[in-house]
Write a structure and sequence with these properties.
Serine Threonine Protein Phosphatase 5, Tetratricopeptide repeat, 6 helices, 2% strand
């Protein structure tokens, strides 16, 4: 078999699991499962490596596969997690004030509401599994933007006291969204192996758009 005929790997699973795990870790922290007084390494490490580095790798692989949607989505979310991790490292090192970082993350969340909506519209011609993943992510960004942008020096927000209960809604929706990432990632991995073996993939993703003939 020549190199031209070899099947290329699909980086979707790497990207979706990297994003899903990072979101899950952030969501667990947001709902207060860990004490908010503990070191924010609970958020920083997954955001830096899984959400930042691994998503960036998946983005470059999607670019090489000619997938503009995947390359752009994974690349922009990688940027979000990298900035998020850097900002919280800066808090620990005394470079940035927590209130300023909260407002900055809120501004990023506002921007990603717009970008995620664009990705969600694009996914309307892809499959239901990915569409629901992006829909719940859109809700997550909304639920982060509201309290973070309205945070005051006295730790009050438009959704109550910060961090709890103001961040809890975003955390719970984030956990739901991380479950959808498992659906998309599992389908990408398991269906691929079954199809290589000559069988139909067992995990449906429910295509939404018709392929051009």
């Amino acid at each position: 078999m020549t190199d031209e005929n070899k099947k290329k790997g699909d980086p979707t699973a790497l990207g979706i699991f990297a994003y899903g795990f990072s979101l899950f870790a952030l969501s667990i922290y947001a709902i207060g499962f860990f004490s908010f007084s503990t070191e924010s390494i609970v958020m920083i490490a997954p955001a830096l490596f899984f959400g930042g580095v691994f998503l960036l790798i998946a983005s470059t692989w999607e670019y090489n596969n000619g997938n503009t949607f995947g390359a752009t989505a994974f690349g922009t979310y990688s940027g979000f997690f990298l900035v998020f991790a850097f900002a919280h490292i800066g808090i620990k090192l005394g470079w940035f004030a927590p209130l300023i970082v909260a407002h900055m993350v809120g501004i990023m969340a506002l921007a990603f509401i717009v970008m995620t909506f664009i990705y969600w519209v694009g996914s309307l011609k892809m499959n239901l599994a990915l569409n629901l993943t992006l829909f719940f992510l859109l809700i997550v960004f909304i639920l982060y933007a509201i309290p973070l942008l309205s945070l005051t020096p006295s730790s009050t927000t438009a959704m109550g006291a910060f961090p709890a209960p103001a961040l809890a809604p975003a955390g719970w929706v984030g956990i739901i969204d991380s479950l959808f990432t498992m659906w998309v990632g599992a389908a990408a991995i398991i269906n691929d192996r079954w199809e290589v073996a000559g069988s139909r993939g067992p995990i449906p993703v429910f295509p939404l758009g018709k392929k051009k003939k």
